[in-house]
Amino acid sequence: MVAAVLWAISGKPIGFVLKIFISVLVIACPCALGLATPTAIMVGTGKGAEYGILIKSGTALEIAHKIDVIILDKTGTITKGEPELKNIIVYGDMDEDEVLKLVASAERSSEHPLGQAIVKAAIDKGFELYDAQNFQALPGHGIKVDIYGRHVLVGNEKLMLNYDIDISAGQGDMEALAQKGETPMYVAIDNKLIGVIAVADVVKPSSKDAIEALHRAGIKVMMITGDNKETAKAIARQIGIAEENILAEVLPQDKADNVKRLQEEGYRVAMVGDGINDAPALAQADVGMAIASGTDIAMESADIVLMGNDLMDVYTAIELSKKTIKHIKQNLFWAFAYNTVGIPIAAGVLYIFGGPLLNPMIAAAAMSLSSVSVVTNALRLRRFKPTYR
Question: Which has the closest alpha carbon to 141: 171, 169, 114, 166?
Fold first, then answer.
């Protein structure tokens, strides 16, 4: 409009002025700018799906490359989530089989994978389990249940101390088992310690490599777990996470608080988990990533779902985000560069210095070409291949 008015004031005929007006109007059409970001996001999201990374929103894809800290849940994320019974240590007259049968009967109503591992071990041995009453799960502590009039407690030190149970006989065994990477639990009947039972979960083969790749990318990796500190340290040593980056003995409701604390310190935080108790932390994180083998609630709360159940996909998601943002920036550069050069030409700058006047049809072709170039550049993302595949 300004260019047309200036040419009109200069005394040019109406045909000339209209030609300038139409050329500027056509060439200034922001189609390329409008396509720059959504096209790249669309292609990046599709490419992620091809590799089993379901990205629910463009925002998650745009933010993922800015992540400073990744918090990994232990059970089912770093480990396979298929724990097995490893040890039973008995104090007193009761034998190991009876302790296993009792604990399995108590854990039968539990949904926790560690409890289910104990139940499976008892069933595999052919034990007929007792009927249990008044089952109560105590998140971050253990379970409480009645079996034929006996009060059974299975859980960690906090649970035992809450019921004033003397655990001095089992503390040495608990520490030794934890240092081997097993998850030990105290077993008490009628407020008396009768034994320790330990379950271990195997670390996923790719966990160590994925964490090393994230470290090389300059990302701080932390592990969060409700397990005791010694067990957490043993697992962390296997996968290369520093001791100061371990968050152990964390209650389920406190996971989101740990994410929030890091955010308040100025970090961009990603949370990776699979369980119901991870859902608040997944929702709190800047980017929540859920393992597909986990619960529906975790997947619903997350921004990205990793269908391959492989931690290496966390690195791939961040790598894809970086590539996508790179293409978005390229698209925006060329779109702005096109307008920066094209609009003055359409306004008649070349004509002032004896050059040609831009024909509106040429302006339309140039405008279309800019949109095509942006889309073509975005489609180059289809050639993306993860570094670690």
Answer: 114
344 CB-contact burial (10 Å; exposed 0-12 / middle 13-18 / buried 19+): middle
Tell me the C-alpha distance between 331 and 43, whole Å: 13
Tens digits of pLDDT across the chain (389 residues) = 555 555 556 666 666 556 556 656 556 656 556 667 788 888 899 999 999 999 998 899 999 999 999 999 988 889 887 888 999 999 988 889 999 999 999 999 887 888 889 999 999 999 999 998 999 988 878 999 999 888 999 999 889 999 999 999 999 999 999 888 888 999 999 999 999 999 988 888 889 999 999 999 999 999 998 888 888 898 999 999 999 999 998 887 889 999 999 999 999 999 999 888 889 999 999 999 998 887 788 889 999 999 988 899 999 999 999 999 988 888 777 777 676 666 566 555 555 655 566 666 665 566 666 777 777 877 888 888 888 76
Angle among Cα 304, 306, 312 to the nearest 5 degrees reads 115
Pairing type for strands 269-273 and 150-155 reads unpaired
Structure tokens at 32: 């390329």
In whole angstroms, what is the distance from residue 143 CA to residue 153 CA? 6
**The residue type at 179:** Q
Instruction: Say how far apart CA 79 and CA 303 lie, in whole Å.
Output: 22
- Record the pTM: 0.78
Q: For residue 287, give the DSSP letter.
A: E
Reply yes or no on whether 124 is catalytic: no
Give the H or E element holding residue 152: strand 150-155
What is the distance between the terminal CA atoms of the chain, rounded to a whole angstrom? 54
The number of CA neighbours under 13 Å toward the Cβ of 87 is 18
Using alpha carbons only, give the angle 52, 53, 56 rounded to the nearest 5 degrees: 135
Pick the catalytic residue from 73, 201, 278, 303.
73
Both tokens assigned to 53: 């990374």
Structure tokens at 365: 């072709």
Contacting residues for 88 by C-beta, under 8 A, at least 6 apart:
96, 99, 100, 195, 196, 197, 198
Say if residues 146 and 157 touch (Cβ distance below 8 Å): no
